[in-house]
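wait is this the right file?? whatever heres the structure
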């Protein structure tokens, strides 16, 4: 008598390990994977860095005044000015106002390198006989200071000037920016 075979479920073989199936390739030359995206990102970041480096370097020719150091070097008597005052850009222009009819006319501004002396350093200008006692008295009475253009050994144009804080400096007190030293704004 033949035995009837018992029911045995069909055997499944474990899946065979084979090479991963590549996704279908796109036609054309533009195929992105992680390596090419990383390479493109790196090229982009380096390009931005090089662009910033080229645009932010100061050229030290007189046509491009890009930094305080350039202004300091351009000031008349630069060493004396930086030590006893502050270098400045002097804008020389004139206004003509007519009343009938009312109009305002402005000359083309002329930009010159200059220097603003601190009040306690006026004696330098007095020692060189560039100021009279009367000029010093008049300027002191109005709580002003002196500024000049041109070298002191030549014929400098010296003026009694006052510090105007009415508009304020919008570059100061910005969030995240260190403020200027308190003594640097007082002349």
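ok assuming it is, sequence goes like this
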């Amino acid at each position: 008598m033949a035995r009837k075979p018992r029911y045995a479920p069909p055997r499944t073989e474990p899946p065979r390990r084979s090479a991963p199936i590549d996704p279908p390739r796109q036609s054309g030359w533009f195929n992105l994977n992680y390596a090419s995206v990383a390479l493109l990102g790196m090229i982009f970041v380096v390009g931005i860095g090089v662009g910033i480096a080229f645009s932010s370097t100061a050229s030290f020719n007189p046509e491009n005044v890009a930094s305080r150091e350039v202004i300091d070097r351009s000031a008349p008597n630069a060493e004396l000015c930086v030590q006893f005052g502050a270098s400045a850009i002097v804008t020389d222009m004139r206004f003509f106002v007519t009343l009938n009819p009312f109009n305002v006319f402005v000359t083309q501004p002329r930009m010159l390198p200059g220097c603003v002396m601190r009040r306690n350093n006026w004696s330098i200008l007095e020692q060189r006989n560039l100021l009279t006692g009367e000029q010093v008295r008049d300027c002191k009475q109005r709580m002003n200071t002196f500024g000049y253009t041109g070298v002191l050994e030549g014929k400098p144009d010296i003026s009694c000037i006052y510090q105007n804080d009415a508009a304020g400096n919008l570059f100061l007190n910005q969030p995240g920016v260190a403020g200027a030293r308190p003594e640097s704004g007082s002349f």
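Residues 68-165 form one domain. so i think its the right one actually
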